[in-house]
Amino acid sequence: MSHTPPSGAPVAVALAPHDDALLRDAIERAGGRVVGLDAEDPAVALIWQGGPAEFPETLPRSVRWVQLGSAGVEKWFGSGVLDRHPDVQFTSATGAYATTVAEHALALLLAGVRYLPAQISAQKWSGELVAPHVGTLRESTVTIVGAGGIGRALIPMLGALGAHVVAVNRSGTPVPGAMETVAVAQLGQVWAQTDHVVIAAPATVATRHLVGAAELGALKPTSWVINVARGDLLDTDAVVAALTLGAIGGVGLDVTDPEPLPDDHPLWDLPNAIITPHVANPPQRQAGAYADRVAANVARFAAGQELIAPVDRAQGY
Question: Per the residue annotation, which of 170, 209, 278, 300 is the catalytic one?
Protein backbone atom coordinates (compact mmCIF):
# COMPACT_ATOMS: atom_id res chain seq x y z
CA MET A 1 0.00 0.00 0.00
CA SER A 2 1.65 3.23 -1.12
CA HIS A 3 1.66 6.17 1.25
CA THR A 4 4.24 8.34 -0.50
CA PRO A 5 3.16 11.99 -0.60
CA PRO A 6 4.13 14.25 -3.49
CA SER A 7 7.62 15.69 -3.35
CA GLY A 8 8.20 19.38 -2.75
CA ALA A 9 5.71 20.93 -0.33
CA PRO A 10 5.65 19.80 3.34
CA VAL A 11 3.35 16.87 3.93
CA ALA A 12 -0.23 17.79 4.86
CA VAL A 13 -1.36 16.48 8.25
CA ALA A 14 -4.84 16.83 9.75
CA LEU A 15 -5.52 16.75 13.49
CA ALA A 16 -8.90 15.38 14.56
CA PRO A 17 -11.31 15.29 16.23
CA HIS A 18 -9.69 18.33 17.90
CA ASP A 19 -6.55 20.43 17.72
CA ASP A 20 -3.64 19.83 20.08
CA ALA A 21 -0.69 22.16 20.58
CA LEU A 22 1.78 19.40 21.46
CA LEU A 23 0.87 17.34 18.40
CA ARG A 24 0.85 20.40 16.18
CA ASP A 25 4.41 21.14 17.30
CA ALA A 26 5.40 17.50 16.69
CA ILE A 27 4.02 17.64 13.15
CA GLU A 28 5.77 20.89 12.35
CA ARG A 29 9.14 19.83 13.75
CA ALA A 30 8.89 16.72 11.56
CA GLY A 31 8.50 18.94 8.52
CA GLY A 32 4.73 18.67 8.17
CA ARG A 33 2.06 21.33 7.90
CA VAL A 34 -1.24 21.16 9.75
CA VAL A 35 -4.32 21.33 7.55
CA GLY A 36 -8.03 20.68 7.87
CA LEU A 37 -9.34 17.20 7.16
CA ASP A 38 -11.11 18.55 4.09
CA ALA A 39 -7.97 20.18 2.67
CA GLU A 40 -7.54 19.98 -1.08
CA ASP A 41 -4.30 18.07 -1.11
CA PRO A 42 -3.36 14.89 -3.01
CA ALA A 43 -2.06 13.15 0.13
CA VAL A 44 -3.17 13.83 3.69
CA ALA A 45 -2.16 12.14 6.92
CA LEU A 46 -4.71 12.05 9.75
CA ILE A 47 -3.60 12.05 13.37
CA TRP A 48 -6.68 10.73 15.18
CA GLN A 49 -6.94 11.39 18.91
CA GLY A 50 -10.33 9.86 19.61
CA GLY A 51 -11.78 6.38 19.69
CA PRO A 52 -13.50 4.31 17.01
CA ALA A 53 -16.99 5.47 17.99
CA GLU A 54 -16.25 9.05 16.88
CA PHE A 55 -14.35 8.10 13.74
CA PRO A 56 -15.92 9.43 10.49
CA GLU A 57 -18.03 7.06 8.42
CA THR A 58 -16.26 8.31 5.32
CA LEU A 59 -12.89 9.96 4.73
CA PRO A 60 -11.75 12.29 1.97
CA ARG A 61 -10.08 10.38 -0.86
CA SER A 62 -6.88 12.31 -0.10
CA VAL A 63 -6.38 10.61 3.28
CA ARG A 64 -3.68 7.97 2.84
CA TRP A 65 -2.70 7.23 6.43
CA VAL A 66 -4.31 7.39 9.89
CA GLN A 67 -2.24 7.40 13.08
CA LEU A 68 -4.12 6.05 16.11
CA GLY A 69 -3.32 7.07 19.67
CA SER A 70 -3.75 3.64 21.25
CA ALA A 71 -1.36 0.71 21.26
CA GLY A 72 -4.18 -1.85 21.38
CA VAL A 73 -6.43 -1.91 18.32
CA GLU A 74 -8.94 -4.65 19.15
CA LYS A 75 -11.73 -2.07 19.51
CA TRP A 76 -10.90 -0.66 16.09
CA PHE A 77 -11.29 -4.08 14.53
CA GLY A 78 -14.48 -4.75 16.47
CA SER A 79 -16.04 -1.44 15.41
CA GLY A 80 -15.61 -2.13 11.70
CA VAL A 81 -13.62 1.08 11.10
CA LEU A 82 -10.78 -0.74 9.38
CA ASP A 83 -13.20 -2.60 7.11
CA ARG A 84 -14.83 0.68 6.07
CA HIS A 85 -11.49 2.12 4.98
CA PRO A 86 -9.62 -0.73 3.28
CA ASP A 87 -7.41 1.54 1.17
CA VAL A 88 -6.12 3.64 4.09
CA GLN A 89 -3.07 2.61 6.04
CA PHE A 90 -3.55 2.66 9.82
CA THR A 91 -0.75 2.73 12.37
CA SER A 92 -1.09 2.20 16.10
CA ALA A 93 0.93 3.60 18.99
CA THR A 94 2.45 0.17 19.69
CA GLY A 95 5.90 0.61 21.14
CA ALA A 96 5.49 4.31 21.89
CA TYR A 97 4.87 3.60 25.56
CA ALA A 98 6.98 0.43 25.75
CA THR A 99 9.68 1.53 28.19
CA THR A 100 7.22 2.90 30.74
CA VAL A 101 5.06 -0.23 30.62
CA ALA A 102 8.11 -2.49 30.82
CA GLU A 103 9.24 -0.63 33.93
CA HIS A 104 5.85 -1.28 35.52
CA ALA A 105 6.02 -4.97 34.59
CA LEU A 106 9.42 -5.21 36.27
CA ALA A 107 8.09 -3.45 39.36
CA LEU A 108 5.21 -5.92 39.66
CA LEU A 109 7.52 -8.89 39.16
CA LEU A 110 10.08 -7.68 41.69
CA ALA A 111 7.35 -6.88 44.20
CA GLY A 112 6.05 -10.42 43.94
CA VAL A 113 9.37 -12.23 43.92
CA ARG A 114 10.67 -10.16 46.83
CA TYR A 115 7.41 -10.78 48.74
CA LEU A 116 6.78 -7.08 49.20
CA PRO A 117 2.96 -6.96 49.58
CA ALA A 118 3.02 -8.85 52.90
CA GLN A 119 5.87 -6.74 54.17
CA ILE A 120 4.29 -3.44 53.15
CA SER A 121 1.15 -4.27 55.09
CA ALA A 122 3.02 -5.72 58.12
CA GLN A 123 2.57 -3.98 61.47
CA LYS A 124 5.38 -5.77 63.31
CA TRP A 125 8.79 -7.33 62.71
CA SER A 126 8.30 -10.76 61.17
CA GLY A 127 11.59 -11.69 59.55
CA GLU A 128 11.39 -15.37 60.43
CA LEU A 129 8.01 -15.62 58.68
CA VAL A 130 8.85 -13.53 55.64
CA ALA A 131 12.39 -14.62 54.81
CA PRO A 132 11.50 -18.07 53.40
CA HIS A 133 9.25 -16.45 50.80
CA VAL A 134 11.71 -13.83 49.54
CA GLY A 135 13.24 -14.76 46.19
CA THR A 136 15.47 -13.23 43.55
CA LEU A 137 15.46 -12.77 39.80
CA ARG A 138 19.15 -13.55 39.57
CA GLU A 139 19.70 -16.74 37.56
CA SER A 140 15.94 -17.14 37.11
CA THR A 141 14.24 -17.72 33.76
CA VAL A 142 11.57 -15.21 32.80
CA THR A 143 9.37 -15.95 29.79
CA ILE A 144 8.00 -12.91 27.98
CA VAL A 145 4.90 -13.85 26.00
CA GLY A 146 4.71 -11.25 23.26
CA ALA A 147 8.23 -9.96 22.69
CA GLY A 148 7.23 -6.82 20.82
CA GLY A 149 7.98 -3.29 21.96
CA ILE A 150 7.26 -3.86 25.65
CA GLY A 151 9.03 -7.20 25.72
CA ARG A 152 12.10 -5.85 23.96
CA ALA A 153 12.26 -2.94 26.41
CA LEU A 154 11.96 -5.33 29.35
CA ILE A 155 14.72 -7.72 28.26
CA PRO A 156 17.68 -5.46 29.16
CA MET A 157 16.02 -4.52 32.46
CA LEU A 158 15.80 -8.19 33.40
CA GLY A 159 19.30 -8.82 32.10
CA ALA A 160 20.69 -6.14 34.38
CA LEU A 161 19.31 -8.13 37.32
CA GLY A 162 20.89 -11.38 36.13
CA ALA A 163 17.73 -13.02 34.81
CA HIS A 164 17.61 -15.13 31.65
CA VAL A 165 14.83 -14.39 29.16
CA VAL A 166 12.84 -16.68 26.90
CA ALA A 167 11.07 -14.55 24.30
CA VAL A 168 7.87 -15.74 22.65
CA ASN A 169 6.76 -14.16 19.40
CA ARG A 170 4.60 -15.09 16.42
CA SER A 171 7.40 -16.15 14.09
CA GLY A 172 10.13 -17.47 16.35
CA THR A 173 12.58 -14.97 14.83
CA PRO A 174 15.38 -14.45 17.38
CA VAL A 175 14.90 -11.48 19.68
CA PRO A 176 18.07 -9.57 20.67
CA GLY A 177 19.05 -10.16 24.28
CA ALA A 178 16.89 -13.23 24.78
CA MET A 179 18.51 -16.51 25.79
CA GLU A 180 16.01 -18.28 23.53
CA THR A 181 13.17 -17.28 21.21
CA VAL A 182 10.16 -19.54 20.78
CA ALA A 183 7.35 -19.25 18.23
CA VAL A 184 3.92 -18.92 19.79
CA ALA A 185 2.92 -22.21 18.18
CA GLN A 186 5.47 -23.91 20.45
CA LEU A 187 4.43 -21.97 23.56
CA GLY A 188 3.51 -25.15 25.39
CA GLN A 189 7.14 -26.19 25.71
CA VAL A 190 8.22 -23.19 27.79
CA TRP A 191 6.07 -23.54 30.91
CA ALA A 192 8.03 -26.29 32.62
CA GLN A 193 11.36 -24.52 32.16
CA THR A 194 10.33 -21.03 33.23
CA ASP A 195 10.34 -19.45 36.67
CA HIS A 196 8.14 -16.44 35.92
CA VAL A 197 5.96 -15.18 33.07
CA VAL A 198 5.29 -11.69 31.72
CA ILE A 199 2.35 -11.33 29.30
CA ALA A 200 2.83 -8.51 26.80
CA ALA A 201 1.09 -9.89 23.70
CA PRO A 202 -1.55 -8.11 21.59
CA ALA A 203 -5.18 -8.94 22.21
CA THR A 204 -6.83 -10.75 19.30
CA VAL A 205 -9.47 -13.43 18.91
CA ALA A 206 -6.65 -15.98 18.79
CA THR A 207 -4.95 -14.79 22.00
CA ARG A 208 -8.00 -14.78 24.29
CA HIS A 209 -7.15 -16.91 27.36
CA LEU A 210 -3.71 -17.58 25.94
CA VAL A 211 -2.74 -18.41 29.50
CA GLY A 212 -5.33 -20.56 31.23
CA ALA A 213 -5.67 -23.43 33.68
CA ALA A 214 -3.35 -25.82 31.82
CA GLU A 215 -0.59 -23.25 31.45
CA LEU A 216 -0.83 -22.10 35.06
CA GLY A 217 -0.84 -25.71 36.22
CA ALA A 218 2.44 -26.36 34.39
CA LEU A 219 4.24 -23.55 36.23
CA LYS A 220 6.10 -23.82 39.52
CA PRO A 221 4.42 -23.06 42.85
CA THR A 222 6.83 -20.13 43.17
CA SER A 223 6.09 -18.68 39.71
CA TRP A 224 4.72 -15.18 39.33
CA VAL A 225 2.59 -14.26 36.33
CA ILE A 226 2.55 -10.61 35.27
CA ASN A 227 0.04 -9.17 32.80
CA VAL A 228 0.55 -5.67 31.37
CA ALA A 229 -1.13 -6.34 28.00
CA ARG A 230 -4.89 -6.95 28.01
CA GLY A 231 -6.97 -8.64 30.67
CA ASP A 232 -8.51 -11.34 28.51
CA LEU A 233 -5.15 -12.89 27.59
CA LEU A 234 -5.28 -14.42 31.06
CA ASP A 235 -8.17 -16.63 32.21
CA THR A 236 -9.28 -14.84 35.39
CA ASP A 237 -11.21 -17.79 36.83
CA ALA A 238 -8.19 -20.04 36.30
CA VAL A 239 -6.00 -17.47 38.03
CA VAL A 240 -8.24 -17.36 41.10
CA ALA A 241 -8.22 -21.17 41.29
CA ALA A 242 -4.43 -21.38 40.89
CA LEU A 243 -3.83 -18.76 43.57
CA THR A 244 -6.29 -20.37 45.97
CA LEU A 245 -4.66 -23.78 45.55
CA GLY A 246 -1.12 -22.41 45.76
CA ALA A 247 -0.33 -23.72 42.28
CA ILE A 248 1.60 -20.53 41.47
CA GLY A 249 3.36 -17.95 43.59
CA GLY A 250 1.19 -15.01 42.59
CA VAL A 251 0.06 -12.60 39.92
CA GLY A 252 0.75 -8.96 39.17
CA LEU A 253 -2.05 -7.49 37.07
CA ASP A 254 -2.19 -4.02 35.59
CA VAL A 255 -5.04 -5.20 33.36
CA THR A 256 -7.93 -7.45 34.30
CA ASP A 257 -10.90 -9.26 32.84
CA PRO A 258 -13.38 -7.81 33.60
CA GLU A 259 -12.00 -4.28 33.77
CA PRO A 260 -12.44 -2.40 36.00
CA LEU A 261 -12.27 -5.30 38.41
CA PRO A 262 -15.49 -5.32 40.51
CA ASP A 263 -15.12 -4.40 44.18
CA ASP A 264 -16.37 -7.82 45.29
CA HIS A 265 -14.11 -9.85 43.02
CA PRO A 266 -12.21 -12.63 44.86
CA LEU A 267 -8.86 -11.40 43.51
CA TRP A 268 -9.00 -8.46 45.91
CA ASP A 269 -8.94 -10.84 48.89
CA LEU A 270 -5.99 -12.94 47.74
CA PRO A 271 -2.70 -11.85 49.36
CA ASN A 272 -0.65 -13.08 46.41
CA ALA A 273 -2.47 -10.93 43.84
CA ILE A 274 -1.06 -7.46 43.16
CA ILE A 275 -3.52 -5.35 41.18
CA THR A 276 -2.82 -1.90 39.76
CA PRO A 277 -5.59 0.01 37.94
CA HIS A 278 -4.22 0.04 34.37
CA VAL A 279 -1.58 2.66 35.16
CA ALA A 280 1.51 1.05 33.62
CA ASN A 281 1.31 3.81 31.03
CA PRO A 282 0.51 6.81 33.27
CA PRO A 283 -1.46 9.65 31.65
CA GLN A 284 1.21 12.25 32.40
CA ARG A 285 3.68 10.29 30.26
CA GLN A 286 1.39 9.49 27.36
CA ALA A 287 1.19 12.85 25.64
CA GLY A 288 4.93 13.33 25.19
CA ALA A 289 5.53 9.76 24.08
CA TYR A 290 2.68 9.92 21.57
CA ALA A 291 3.93 13.24 20.20
CA ASP A 292 7.34 11.68 19.61
CA ARG A 293 5.70 8.81 17.71
CA VAL A 294 3.68 11.25 15.61
CA ALA A 295 6.81 13.22 14.73
CA ALA A 296 8.69 10.06 13.77
CA ASN A 297 5.90 8.76 11.56
CA VAL A 298 5.18 12.12 9.91
CA ALA A 299 8.85 12.32 8.94
CA ARG A 300 8.68 8.78 7.53
CA PHE A 301 5.46 9.53 5.67
CA ALA A 302 7.04 12.61 4.11
CA ALA A 303 10.04 10.55 2.99
CA GLY A 304 7.93 7.68 1.66
CA GLN A 305 9.43 5.29 4.19
CA GLU A 306 7.77 2.41 6.03
CA LEU A 307 5.73 3.68 8.95
CA ILE A 308 6.23 2.53 12.54
CA ALA A 309 3.65 0.08 13.91
CA PRO A 310 1.41 -0.53 10.89
CA VAL A 311 -1.82 -2.28 11.81
CA ASP A 312 -1.76 -5.82 10.44
CA ARG A 313 -5.30 -6.46 9.20
CA ALA A 314 -4.66 -10.16 8.63
CA GLN A 315 -3.28 -10.78 12.13
CA GLY A 316 -5.70 -8.49 13.93
CA TYR A 317 -3.22 -6.15 15.64
Answer: 278
